[in-house]
Amino acid sequence: MVTVAFVCLGNICRSPMAEAVFAEHVRREGLEDVIKVDSFGTSAFHVGNKPDKRTISTCDKNGTPIQHRAQQIYPHHFTKFDYILGMDRENLGNLKCMAPKNSTATIDLFGSYRTSNDLNRIIDDPYYGGQNGFDITYDQVTDFSKGLLEDIRKNHL
Asked: What sequence ranges are listed for the domain Phosphotyrosine protein phosphatase I (predicted)?
């Protein structure tokens, strides 16, 4: 079993969208029995909340099912997941600071798995902007999901 966790600040915009999109790629490839996906926030701001309405509507209009409640990442997750992927440099820095000494996870930017150089590796937080930011985020997580799945196939399956 390969385990993947996507992480942003509050776990209501970027990381649940990344989780939903990647899970859909996994499902389409018939790999849901060998790849487990989840998402978290580095903060507890929105724990228990559903994803932002714009995240849900962006996923819906692209035919991507999304079911999630915000949750916070904790030190024990760093030995439970194979990949812990932050959306931006601040998330990545927070994750590296949080990681216990016995961490076994690959901690990286999700954008490190991009397949298109036309896309920014950093997934900016769309929360305070308009719908366009969520559309850009969707394009990024779709591309990065392809690259991550390639990496998992090459290194784990």
From this structure: 2-151
Q: Indicate the class that CATH gives domain 2-148.
A: alpha beta
What DSSP letter does each residue of 55-111 carry, written as one string?
HHHHHHHTT--------B--TTHHHH-SEEEESSHHHHHHHHHH--TT--SEEEEGG
Catalytic one of 52, 88, 125, 143: 125
DSSP-derived pairing of the beta strands 35-41 and 83-86: unpaired
Q: Does the global pTM surpass 0.90?
A: yes
Q: Which tens digit of pLDDT belongs to each residue from 5-58?
A: 999 999 999 999 999 999 999 999 999 999 999 999 999 999 999 999 999 999
72 pairs with which residues across the strands? 41
Known catalytic residue at 125: yes
For the chain, the straight-line distance linking the first and the last C-alpha, in angstroms and rounded, comes to 9
What are the extents of the domains in the chain?
A: 2-148
Catalytic residue among 13, 14, 38, 54: 14
**Contact call for residues 8 and 41 (beta carbons, < 8 A):** yes
Q: Which of 8, 13, 54, 88 is catalytic?
A: 8
Structure tokens given for 86 = 């932050």
